[in-house]
TrEMBL record, chains A, B:
SMART domains documented for this protein: HTH_LACI (SM00354)
Entry keywords, A to Z: DNA-binding, Repressor, Transcription, Transcription regulation
Protein name (database record): LacI family transcriptional regulator
The keyword Transcription regulation appears for this protein: yes
SUPFAM superfamilies the UniProt entry points to: lambda repressor-like DNA-binding domains (SSF47413), Periplasmic binding protein-like I (SSF53822)
C-alpha cells in the first residue's frame, strides 16, 4: 500500500510538506496542493485512519448494539442508522447482543477499547449497572437507561391509542392486545397502556395477553396466539405490539378458519417490511424509524462535541390502513 | 478513562512493567501479574485498541458490504457474519452500498483507510475494476469477482433443480420461473438454469420471467407477478428465485382469487424469515446462510495469516416443504 513517503517521492516534495497538505496546515500554494492530490490519486494513497484516530484520541466510528440483527424491526433500524452515520462521515461497528447480559458488557468494553465516538443502544433488557465506565455519548432508541445521554422514542402511548380507536371505529366490540413482558419497564410497554386507556374511555371490553422473553428471542408466538383465539372466540379485534406478532396472528387465523378482516380485525405496530408482504397486508402503527435513526446520529455527533442535547425525544407515529382491518 | 499510568500508580509498579504484563513480554512473577489485573479491574482499565492496531499495522475489524441491509436475506446473513466474527474476536464495520458503484468505491477506500483485516462482499453488481487497490483478503458471498481471494456460494444450480423436481412431483405440468436479471453474471443465475434443465429433461412446459434492477432495489415485484399470472392462466407451478418474490406471488394470488396450493404451487429460495410468516407458509430451497457466513469468516482469518484458502466453495442446499406446495 502506498505511504506518505511514496507520495513525497512521487512529487519530489518533503514528507512534512505532503503531511501539511493532507492536514490543511499552514500556507501551501495551489500548485503544490494539486501535485500532491495528483500523486495521491495516481498511487491510490489512503491516509491511515488508525494513526489519525490515535492522535485525535477518538475515531469516527459509532458502536451500534441491537438484541437481534435479523428481526425485521432492527434490520430496518440498522439500515437507517448506517445511512445517517454515513451521511455524517461516521462508520458503524455492529454488535448483536442477543439480549444476554454478559454479551452486552463484553460489547461495551470492546467499544471502549476501540475508542468509539459514541454508542447507540437499541431496545434490549440489560441491567443498568452494566453501563458504568462509558465515557462517550450513549444514545438509546426505544429503551430507558438512567445514565444514557439521550433517549429517542416513538410516541408509543399515542400509537396504542390510535390502534384501539381504529379497531373501535371499524366496529369491533371485544378487543385483545398481545404485547411483550419484560423485567424492566420498556417504552414499548406504553403501547398497551394507550390501548387500554381508549378501551376504558369508550367502555369497550378488552383483555391483555403477554408474550414472554423466550418467545421474543425466538420470534415465535403461534402457540400463545392459538390459545388466545381458541379460548376467546368472542374477540373481534386484536392489537399486536409488533408486525411480527400480527403476521403470526394472520397465520393462526388461517389455520383456525377465522376470516380476516371479516371475523377478526388485526392491527400491528412498527410498519416494517413484514406488514406489507403478508396476505392480507397488515394495518399498522407507523414508527418513524428513519427519522429516529437520523435523530440518534445527530444527537450523538452533537453530544460528542459537548453540545447540549435533549435528554428525551419522542417522535410522532401514524396509522397505516391496510387489508387486515 | 483510566490509563496505563493510572494502573501503574495504583500498583506502585513502573509503567514499563505494567506494559510487559499486558503484552505478556518477558518474565513476570504471578504476584505482580495478579496485582496488575486487580488494578485494571478496579479502575476499569481498557487497553487502547487503536494504539495496538497502529503498532500491529492491522485491526481486528472486518468490513462487511451488502447492497441492502434490510432485505430479509442480507439481514440474516449479517446476523450470522457478526456471530461468526465475534466468535473469532473480530468486529464488523457494516456498510450498505445500495448497489451504487460510487458508493462501493467510497466504502472500499474507507476500509483501506481504516486498515481492516479483510472485506466480505455480499452479492451486488459493482464493476470489477472498482476493486483495484485492495491489499487485504476479499471474500465474496454469492458473487463472482475475478480478483476476490475466495468465493462462497450455495449450490444454486442444484437448488433450481430441486425446485423444478418438487413442483413436477406435486403434479404441476406448466411451470414458470421468476428470477433476477443483472448486467453481470451472478451465481444466483444458476437457480434458473438448474430449473430449466430439469423441465427440459422431464419434457415439462416452462416459461422464464425476469425481474429488473429497479424492482430488486425496491423489493417490489407485484406488477410483474400480476402480469405473469393474468397472461398465463395455464401456469400451475411457480419457482421464485427469492422468498421475497414468492411472498408477493402469494399476495397477488389472493387478490386474483387463485388458491395456493390448490390451483398454483409456489417454491421460493433462501429460507429466511419471510418464508415462514406468510399465509400459506412457503416451500423453499434452504440456503445454508449460517454455514456460508462461518466459512467466509474462517477463510478471511486464514487468508489474513497467509494460509491458502479454496478459491471457490459451494455449500449444499435442501428443500424445505411448507404449505405453498
Amino acid at each position: 500500500m502506498a505511504t506518505l513517503k511514496d507520495v513525497a517521492k512521487e512529487t519530489g516534495l518533503a514528507v512534512s510538506t505532503v503531511s501539511r497538505v493532507l492536514n490543511s496546515r499552514g500556507y501551501i500554494s495551489e500548485e503544490t496542493k494539486k501535485s500532491v492530490y495528483d500523486a495521491m490519486k495516481k498511487l491510490n494513497y489512503q491516509p491511515n485512519e488508525v494513526a489519525r484516530s490515535l492522535s485525535k484520541q477518538t475515531t469516527n466510528t459509532i458502536g451500534v448494539i441491537v438484541p437481534h440483527i435479523k428481526h425485521p424491526y432492527f434490520a430496518e433500524l440498522i439500515s437507517h442508522i448506517e445511512a445517517a452515520a454515513n451521511h455524517r462521515n461516521y462508520k458503524i461497528l455492529l454488535f448483536n447482543s442477543r439480549d444476554r447480559d454478559e454479551k452486552e458488557k463484553e460489547i461495551l468494553d470492546m467499544c471502549n477499547r476501540n475508542r468509539v465516538a459514541g454508542i447507540i443502544l437499541c431496545s434490549g433488557t440489560v441491567e443498568m449497572n452494566k453501563f458504568e465506565g462509558i465515557h462517550v455519548p450513549l444514545i438509546t432508541i426505544e429503551r430507558n437507561l438512567e445514565m444514557g445521554t439521550a433517549a429517542v422514542e416513538c410516541d408509543n402511548l399515542k400509537g396504542g391509542r390510535m390502534a384501539a380507536r381504529h379497531l373501535i371505529e371499524k366496529g369491533c366490540t371485544n378487543l385483545a392486545v398481545i404485547s411483550g413482558v419484560r423485567g424492566n419497564y420498556m417504552p414499548a410497554d406504553d403501547r398497551e397502556i394507550g390501548f387500554m386507556e381508549v378501551c376504558k374511555e369508550c367502555g369497550i371490553t378488552y383483555q391483555a395477553f403477554k408474550t414472554n422473553e423466550v418467545q421474543y428471542n425466538m420470534g415465535e408466538y403461534h402457540e400463545l396466539i392459538e390459545e388466545v383465539l381458541t379460548q376467546n372466540k368472542e374477540v373481534d379485534g386484536i392489537f399486536a405490539s409488533s408486525d411480527l406478532i400480527a403476521a403470526q396472528v394472520l397465520q393462526v387465523c388461517s389455520r383456525l378458519k377465522i376470516s380476516v378482516p371479516k371475523d377478526l380485525k388485526v392491527v400491528g405496530f412498527d410498519d416494517v417490511l413484514v406488514s406489507s408482504i403478508t396476505t392480507p397486508t397488515i394495518t399498522t402503527i407507523h414508527q418513524p424509524i428513519k427519522e429516529m435513526a437520523q435523530m440518534a446520529i445527530s444527537m450523538l455527533v452533537d453530544a460528542s462535541k459537548d453540545k447540549m442535547v435533549a435528554s428525551k425525544t419522542t417522535l410522532p407515529v401514524s396509522l397505516v390502513e391496510r387489508e387486515s382491518t
